[in-house]
Amino acid sequence: MSPLELFRRNQKVTMTFLILLAMFAFVVLPTVSEYMRRSGPGMTDPVLAEFNGVSLTASRVNGFTQKHYATVQYLRKLAEETMRRGGTPKVPGFVYDQQSNQIQSVGINGSPSDDMSVRTMQFAAEAQKQGFELDDTSLAIWLEQFTDGTMSEREMFALLRRETNNQMGQYQLYDMLRKQLLSALYFRGASATVARGQFPLQSPLDHWNNFLKLNQKATVNAYGVLVNDYVDETDANPSESDVVTVYEAGKDRYPSDQSPEPGFRRRETASFEYLLGELQAFRDAEVAKLSEEEIKAEYERRKAGGAFQLPPDVVIEPEAPETPAAGETAAEAEMNEAKTPENTSEAAPTAATPPAEMKDEAASEPETPAEKASEEPADDDQEASAEAKAAEQKQVEEFSKELEEAGNLDVEATEETATEDAATEETPDDAPESDDQSSTGRDSSGVRLVAMQSDASTETADASTADEAETDAVEAEETAAEETTAEESTPEPRYRPFEEVRDQIAQTMVDAPAREARDAAIAKARNVMRKYSRARAIYGVGGDDATPAPERPNLKALADELGLTHRKIGPFDPVSLADEPIANSVEESTALTQRGVPFAAMMFGIEGQVIKQELFTPATSVDLETQRTYLSWKTDEKEAYTPELDEVRDEVVAAIRFTQARELAKQAAAAMAESANGGTDLDQLVPEDRKENYYKDLGPFSWLNMVGFGSFTIGNIPELDSIDEDFMKTVFNADGGEHVVAPNGPKRVFYVVKRTSLQPATSDLRAIFSQQSERIIAMFMSDGTAAKVQQGFFDSIDDETGFQQYQLPQ
């Protein structure tokens, strides 16, 4: 072997070793580190459930849930690729919404969770016991139908490895599909008459009651007795036994302002650090780089293309009104302005003031007797009348001329007929010649047309010819008027001034470069954060002296360099985080879908659906409405826990006192209702300093509102606090005019309520209910009976399999 070949061989070996080392460092070591962290001293793998003698540990259930989630996401990608290639998944249970262009179901259960994982493994085992089986060939056929034959097995499994980061292969996919399909088959067969606990199992009376809840509307007067007003009347030092009892009852319950039950368990908390890229800030930075000439040039370019044009009816007011001349009133100024040449130049000519052209033409022609008479002195009325007649005669002559030039056949025929008649007719020798006659046909026709329109006794043509000529003259007159009006009504286009649209133009000019600059800044910061995250995963935090922990980047300095905003927030739990602006953002890759993953879900996770973000792992989220991009990571976290009594003693005492105050408020509300029913006006019973809690004529509102087929909510009374089913039941079942006491859901307010009206009348409702189309909704409302039947099915399966479920240790 030559030295060159030996060198090349050693080089290949070295490259292979480096590649394997990199894979080990970035793939194997993080997994081993995570395993060692979770399996360190004192860590155990608790059993979550047992059935048929099989123990399901937490790690096994959690692993199944994660694979279930990965399988659902993979099937979504597979379906998208199938449809992109022109196919359609043809497996039972696949649902695609054409209207929203969203995949609703992929053919298997789409809601992974640990509870669902336990049930899936349990039902799949029961299906196999009953003889159901799915071999690899059947699953391959199922996948072929899913892809509609558009993808090969090699392409499908390559996509699987890519989407799951090499965490799943063919064996893991087939195992998950087998269990999911067998479980669904067993569940459907066993609960064919119960559709997920919602199928109605009700009598006709139940249908009538449901109909009333949706269609009957009440109007009420209500006064709210606040529990907080009676806390000071309770014992500030309850007994230790009461304290311990209340603590034990609520120590594992999370507090909720919508529940009357106290809770003391602490939610998981986390602190965050993030960089914010606001698109508007980058736009402003890019606008500052533009020159005024560039913006004006863009304005002229868009203006030439038709932009910024004002509608004809828009009037641009002058910036400042002109000051009238000295001694001139505002009214006189307006009149003088109306008389200016600018305001009169476009006015239509009248009979009294003919256009200059018309006057010139009239002056060049021989004067008629009427014109001569008009030159003689006369009063104003006679002069105006003469001028009007002259203008009218001239206008008719011009129309006659236009008709002749257009080649009007009717006029020519009239001329020929008139000429023949004149040739055969004997003219008396002593007949005087008219001054305005001419030997040409044009003059003759013009005179005849004037005579035809002004004096019927001088007509020489027959009636039909005269009518046709007159019609043509009128049409020509209307056409000329329309053309003149169209020319006058088409003003020159007007545009918005540059100063008004300058900022708008500048912002749109820089939109694309601003987005590029923001994305580039976020990408650069992400690379810095990701590099630290990977180094931290490999070397760990607080390692030995030989391998010190990587240096955490200074995000504040990085933000200043890149034009981003830096913030540190927390600690927050998933509830308190909602008040932060970043909580309005969603995971970047899901931002344009209807199922965008909220920031809180990204950071804290959703059991079985979204895996929570690890510490110092960068995540990008966006708020499309405000055009903000967030690059964040968790800097600290604290798991949920149950506090010791001493830590929450004050909260326990407050809960005891609030419970006691609740009884006092209830008694006060009942006494007030009794007095009102005895004849005392409720207005007089309400304390002066609590008038704001008294509401009159609330409604009308219904017991239930439908928000979608099969979905209902409690009727809306926005003035009252957290109304629930019990409140509605009390109000709608009360006798008319009676005052009743109805608490809200959390029982922090007791309302004294009087129902003042209930509409429509029962007879009208019965008439409506008799129509099947009107009662169909009420027939499909569930009262919980079907859910109880379904729960009975689960209980029977649990008894058969010896199922036991345990809670995770706190």
UniProtKB/TrEMBL annotation:
**Composition skew (Low complexity), residue ranges:** 322-333, 341-356, 454-464
- Compositional bias annotation for Acidic residues: 412-436, 465-490
User: Where are the annotated segments for Disordered?
Assistant: 310-498
Biased composition range(s): Basic and acidic residues: 389-404
Q: Spell out the protein name for this chain.
A: Periplasmic folding chaperone
